[in-house]
Amino acid sequence: MSLLEREPVRRVQAALEAAGSTSRVIELQATARTAEDAARACGVDVGAIVKSLVFSHDGQAVMALVAGDRRCDMQALKQALGLSGEPGRADPDLVKRQTGFTIGGVAPCGHLTPVPAAIDPDLARFERLFAAAGHPHCVFATDFDELRRISSAVEMRSAGQG
Q1: How far apart are alpha carbons 127 and 107 in whole angstroms?
Q2: For the chain, domain boundaries
Q3: Residue 141, strand partner residues
Q4: How does pLDDT run across 61-81, given as a tens digit for each residue?
């Protein structure tokens, strides 16, 4: 069975189509489990890889969409999502239960339950981005505006961005 036929991957493709995207999930020969792996497999700069980082806040998942060559600005995430208190690392069970994906294949869309998301505007420096699509060997291409739209993400602003 092709990886494209697996339920989590089909859920991502369905979410893309429902959002009006023409992007197609593609299956890679090599793993895209890390941003570095994905960049090699897609033949792009690591910054053009979207990291879908899931954190836990009050027992619920929240997501940060960050360029592969950057770290998540936790203060900007808190501010963008209006969080009180510090979000922490989400455990694999919370990630799977709320997104329906396992770590290494977490997509920015197609979640089982809505997950509040914030996007790093630094991703806009790339014309073409690649994001995980429900499996460590599956990705889809997109751009910043479409990624923000399909993930319903709010833009993060660092302390210096007002």
Answers
A1: 19
A2: 3-155
A3: 130
A4: 999 999 999 999 999 999 999
Contact indicator for 108, 115 with CB cutoff of 8 Å: no
> In 3D, which of 22, 1, 18, 3 has the Cα closest to residue 132?
3
Predicted TM-score of the model (pTM): 0.94
Q: What is the DSSP letter of 48?
A: G
Q: Which structure tokens are listed for 25?
A: 């999930």
Residue 53 dihedral angles phi and psi, to the nearest 5°:
-95, 125
Residues near 63 by Cβ (< 8 Å), separated by ≥ 6?
Answer: 52, 53, 54, 55, 99, 106, 108, 115, 116, 117, 118, 151, 153
Give me the residue label for tokens 């299956």. 27
Q: What is the 3-state secondary structure (H, E, C) of 83-127?
A: CCCCCEECCHHHHHHHHCCCCCCCCCCCCCCCCCEEECHHHHHCC
CATH superfamily assigned to domain 3-155: YbaK/aminoacyl-tRNA synthetase-associated domain (3.90.960.10)
